[in-house]
Design brief:
15 helices; 4-stranded parallel sheet; globular; alpha/beta
């Protein structure tokens, strides 16, 4: 499939019109690959025929599946015979669901090491906000040894792999670098040292977007990671489960002692999975005690195919989820009062008897 795309002369890169803030990295790499082989590419968010000989479609979250399917149906209506290639998260996790609605397409699951060897094409206008247009986007490595049931990485990237061409994918004219590695701390320490050395030598501020794993984080990691400069909240960790209590705090303290500022830190905190509301609130509060920004990450099942069927965990209610997420997304509120004080004082965000019962369970 990669060879077929690489050898196409005119390729439409289609990103369905769902919300996102970063560039579609897969499409940006396809653009470089096609161009390097003498082809042309055309980026679109709504399909318009251009006498192309292939259309490459990216998919993001499964709950945006309808937009992907509708985009494919539009292509089939206007250009019945054009080859369609679909990749990305939804296509990889739910290929049968996609093929049921759109049978005459080719699906690429996971990622390609060959495609990963190409840099993103920054000459295309990806319609990014100015802030995100100042970044280079890349994976230096792939894979994660964990098999967390709430995470898709083990299905998308089943093996640990280091991309030996990663440094060539940094646009040195851009001041910032976004690194998407899913578990950088599971890679050899020499790789982390090389990444940090490159960032420091080229004076780039960085965001490690997917977070460091507190279970693997050591003083040696912190020693190298303290040598680089961070974009806002660019040093990211995760505190997803109560089983990580103690390990998370230890990892943060190791980073602080190495000289990484708490203002550079952010923690992803999963809620609405198997956790209770008070347990999730505890993990969020622990981040505040360490003076780092906690980001509430609401669990949505990996096979949720639309935004309407909002998942409510067995220990939660719909209203409790709404109040909890709003409270913890607002530093101006959660730095002044507790969650219980907030839902008692605020007229819009109040808990019902059912909500309080879940909270106190």
């Amino acid at each position: 499939m990669i060879e077929q795309i690489k050898n196409s002369r005119r390729v439409i890169l289609l990103e369905p019109n769902y919300r996102r803030k970063y560039m579609p990295l897969g499409l940006a790499k396809i653009a470089s690959m096609v161009k390097s082989n003498g082809g042309e590419v055309f980026y679109q968010r709504v399909y318009t025929p251009l006498r192309e000989d292939a259309v490459c479609i990216t998919s993001l979250f499964t709950y945006d599946s309808e937009k992907v399917i509708n985009s494919i149906k539009r292509i089939r209506y206007l250009s019945p015979d054009v080859p369609i290639f679909v990749g990305g998260v939804y296509a990889s996790l739910m290929p049968n669901h996609l093929l049921k609605s759109c049978p005459n397409i080719q699906i690429f699951r996971g990622y390609s090491k060959e495609l990963d060897s190409y840099p993103a094409d920054y000459t295309i206008n990806w319609n990014l906000d100015p802030e995100w247009n100042n970044f280079s986007y890349l994976f230096t490595s792939r894979g994660c040894p964990n098999r967390c049931p709430y995470c898709a990485v083990s299905r998308l990237e089943p093996e640990l792999w280091i991309n030996d061409k990663w440094s060539n994918q940094v646009d040195l004219t851009k001041p910032y670098v976004m690194i998407f590695d899913n578990n950088l701390t599971s890679q050899p320490i020499e790789h982390i040292e090389n990444v940090c050395k490159f960032l420091k030598e080229n004076n780039k501020k960085v965001v490690f977007d997917n977070g460091f794993d507190c279970k693997y984080f050591t003083k040696e990691h912190a020693r190298f990671l303290s040598t680089v400069k961070y974009f806002r909240n660019g040093f990211r960790l995760a505190f997803d489960r109560i089983e990580e209590d103690g390990l998370f705090q230890k990892a943060v303290k190791i980073a602080l002692e190495a000289g990484i500022s708490s203002y550079s830190m952010m923690a992803y905190v999963l809620f609405n999975f198997h956790d209770s509301p008070k347990e999730a609130n505890y993990r969020m509060s622990e981040c505040l005690k360490l003076n780092i920004f906690p980001y509430p990450q609401q669990y949505i099942p990996l096979q949720s195919t639309n935004r309407k069927s909002s998942h409510v965990g067995e220990k939660w209610t719909k209203n409790l989820l709404k109040c909890f997420r709003h409270f913890w997304l607002m530093p101006a509120i959660h730095r002044k009062m507790t969650f219980e004080e907030f839902v008692t004082r605020d007229n819009e965000f109040k808990l019902t008897e059912e909500d309080w019962a879940k909270w106190n369970a």
